[in-house]
Amino acid sequence: MRPIMVAGNWKMNGLHADAQHLTQAILDAALAPTVPEVVLFPPFTLIASVAALARGSSLRWGGQNLFWENHGPYTGEISGPMLRDHGCRYVLVGHSERRQIFQESDEIVFRKVMAALHAGLTPVVCVGESEQERESGQTWEVLERQMTAILPALGANGQQANLIIAYEPIWAIGTGKTASPAQAQEAHAYLRSLVARKNPALAQKVLILYGGSVKANNAGALFAEEDIDGGLVGGASLQAGEFVQICRVAEQIGRGG
Ligand code: 13P
């Protein structure tokens, strides 16, 4: 059985006081120490605020993005070693907002995945189709293209599941239109089958999170699906009570890993 994970992507939201409030609320909830693993993705400016409170607890944190070089003349960028220096274990790569707004191609996503791995970070790689792609029957093609770009990185350091996949259908992000558990399960099973083509053993181990309007009232049905290993939560991760409830749902499902 794969463990379950709940991750909160704060996107470009929050000031120091918000980070303190949200982090403290999760710590106060005293979730079971490893089930689920809870990870926060604050903006870069708040990583230190989260780390100051969460260090020493089972709560983890990560960056929302990184650059593929370690240092140098790249004004405005942040590298993997910089994230590690702030205690990050994870980093989001290829979120649809970065693919769409910042023109991140599959090739850039792959370079960032490799940079994350070299820095000792676990990349959480986001894939997902747009509404138009789904409606025109291109979902599987889009997912296959996005996965083909990153699969060379999988298992690069031995037999570990060294990356996490997040299936985030773009039409479900921030829209309140959650994928149904059956729709999400179908996509997750497909993504896992693509991993299995490369490495059947790792396909059983790799975590595939669902993202797109996850709330406390739909998390249970989603996380209960066989191939859904937790959630990448956007809007609801900015509300302490709601996010803690989502963690509790995962805790009740309680896959021990
Ligand atoms: P919402 O939960 O706000 O739909 O955002 C999902 C997301 O993009 C997480 O990365």
Main pleated sheet: 8 strands, parallel, barrel
Strand order, largest beta sheet: 1-2-3-4-5-6-7-8
Under CATH, the homologous superfamily reads: Aldolase class I
Name of the top-level CATH class: Alpha Beta
CATH topology: TIM Barrel
Give me the Rg, rounded.
17 Å
Second CATH tier, the architecture = Alpha-Beta Barrel
Task: Give the CA-based shape.
Answer: globular
* Continuous helix count: 11
Number of strands: 8
Rounded average pLDDT? 95
The structural domain count equals: 1
Model regions low in confidence, pLDDT < 50 over at least 5 residues: none
**Structural class of the helices, strands and pairings?**
alpha/beta
Straight-line N-to-C gap: 5 Å
Helix/strand layout:
Blueprint: E1 5-9, H1 16-28, E2 37-41, H2 47-54, E3 60-63, H3 80-85, E4 90-93, H4 96-101, H5 106-118, E5 122-127, H6 131-135, H7 139-150, E6 164-167, H8 181-198, H9 200-205, E7 208-211, H10 216-223, E8 230-233, H11 240-253
Parallel strand pairs: 1-2, 1-8, 2-3, 3-4, 4-5, 5-6, 6-7, 7-8
1,3-dihydroxyacetonephosphate binds at residues 9, 95, 168, 173-174, 211-214, 232-236.
What does this structure look like?
- The protein is an alpha/beta fold.
- The chain has a single domain (5-254), classed as Aldolase class I (TIM Barrel, Alpha-Beta Barrel), CATH 3.20.20.70.
- It has 11 helices and 8 strands.
- Helix 10 links the parallel strand 7 (208-211) and strand 8.
- The N and C termini lie close together (5 Å).
- 1,3-dihydroxyacetonephosphate binds at residues 9, 95, 168, 173-174, 211-214, 232-236.
